[in-house]
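User: Teach me something about this protein's shape.
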Amino acid sequence: MAFDIEMIKKVYANMPQRVDKARELVGRPLTLSEKILYAHLWGGTPSQSFSRGKDYVDFAPDRVACQDATAQMALLQFMHAVKSKVAVPTTVHCDHLIQAKVGAKTDLAVANSQSKEVFDFLSSVSNKYGIGFWKPGSGIIHQIVLENYAFPGGMMIGTDSHTVNAGGLGMLAIGVGGADAVDVMSGMSWELKFPKLIGVKLTGKLNGWTAPKDVILKVADILTVKGGTGAIVEYFGEGAIAMSCTGKGTICNMGAEIGATTSTFGYDDSMRRYLIATGRQDVVDAADQVASYLTADPEVYANPETYFDQLIEINLSELEPHINGPFTPDRGTPVSKMKDEAAKNGWPLKVEWGLIGSCTNSSYEDMSRAVSIVEQAVANNITPKAEFGINPGSEQIRYTIERDGILAAFEKMGTKVFTNACGPCIGQWDREGADKGEKNTIVHSFNRNFSKRADGNPNTHAFVTSPEMVAALAISGRLDFNPITDTLLNDNGEAIKLNPPVGDELPNRGFDVEDAGYQAPAADGSAVEVVVSPTSERLQLLDPFTPWNGQNITGAKLLIKAFGKCTTDHISMAGPWLRFRGHLDNISNNMLIGAENAFNGKANSVKNQLTGAYDEVPKVQRAYKAAGVPSIVVGDQNYGEGSSREHAAMEPRHLGVSAVLVKSFARIHETNLKKQGMLALTFANEADYDKIQEDDTFNFVDLTAFAPGKPLTIEVIHADGSKETILANHSYNEGQIEWFKAGSALNLIAAAGKA
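Assistant: First, the predicted structure itself:
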């Protein structure tokens, strides 16, 4: 039986009336995305139609999911909301704080020892407030959500950008910052600008070496890392129907890499099969009663160009395996062209490591298809030329692939089996020799490959591809190996050509597990005590941010002008810094240390305008804060791309940065800045970015008249005394301006709770 089945039945009971009314109001057939959006309006039955990309709308998500690294700050904020229990079903998953080094058993034991304080905190908070808790080793949040909580037609939010993975089961699942999650957990509405819609029509059928991963790698190449911003991507067509549910999850998962709000597929037989295999026949029975509401109206898919803002068509029968990278997930290279591309760009051809897993590709199907390549190598006496590692997606998957002999087959080739956790995908990888900074290549089935992300080495060229291609490239030890055309020499000197991968969509004998790792919360948590030591280095109770004083910000110094790609990894690194995710002051020591200073080309080196000396970014900002001097950060395009981590917004807020002024924002980061009471602004004229000089001071001329749709005027004073005036656009509505005035959105929630 499914978790929260009564909630799911209620969603389905309301859906027909709400969708029918929405169709009447809009006056045309509806996409699946629109059906789910209109069925989850905060006010219930729709009373108006909304304009895509323009109207801010209040929604009522069905559930919330948090991973341990972001849950700490989210729950520390929730403790200020003065609530006795979460208002919607909520779960916490311990998957980010486990470092991959030796192997699953040892690494998990080390994590349980090193992060005991954090795990105990999350367990006790969950127990107190009615939150389901998944213990360390239980698995990766998004795989567990897919196996246990996702359902067709539902809406959920999660404090991780890859929450979108649940779109593989027909949900609208959206990554948010912790403050957004706190809103919903507190029983309040969740606000989102009504998204635009991108349709992706999949024709033909995957075959040979091509996998679902190649669909999203191709889409990322087409749309780039910001092409999906403000939009939902809806996949459909015969190719979509023929694909497995977990394959759909992989595609939706990496939708985060194109900036999409989320991605989804219509309800079909692959979802039925997966739900039944994971013990949720009751969800299938309920969904089948409203099946026509869990996919788009027939007219939409028959004439998609009429109903989507943008349409992409991909013939899966002609799609070639892709290898995307390095340093960005949207640089796509078909396998047949990799030899020329690598030579042209000087990419290291020797593959040092192959890694399979992460929330993107850690399903039973992924493991079974990858192991079919491994088994060929073992059977043909081929010694792998690269090191090889896997992270199963959940304890249920690990237990099942062990039972079915898949794990043993991997280990026979010398594969290192890491914990059921994120591991190398988020920089939790103690890779031997990474500190040497040597130029090298790794291949993985993860979703992101930003510089330094996996192992901390800026010279590691990480390439993203499918699990089966990871296996082939790791065995060959060559980035330019094409398994479709090339052969390998075995230990006897014989040329061996690998057969295309094969595997089971679902285990023939069903899933099995002894202890999935779930801890149900207390029925009444009022007696549960949550203890945070005042001397802890890992956890710190939050103090409310100071409200705006109602005056124009003047005399603000430039902290940094970031050049080029500035992701949340650059703003607030993961890896070893994950241990401080529950301690705002300590983790603020990594603020913007990865961003490149436009004036000297260096990272973590900016000019302190009070002394004239160069120092680390956090130290300079702490000096400004101590002196009572406001500051601003200037950035480039798609600022804040990547993870949903709200620490990238909370750190500058905590250290006294007043505004972030950029060419454009990634969606989640812009919202996170607003939630924390900061000014998130964009250049009205992008060329004004070039006018910003190292010693500039900024005066906000008309902040006292801050209003929706009205640009802010900023006076820029250069070191020689000359002045320029620039306009800064913003997307604040009236409610979001109140967040700014109150000091943060949480301050408003807390005030309402105490009233």
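Now, about its shape. The longest strand covers residues 196-203. The CA atoms of residues 18 and 45 lie 5 Å apart. If you'd like, I can walk through any region in more detail.
User: That's plenty for now, thanks!
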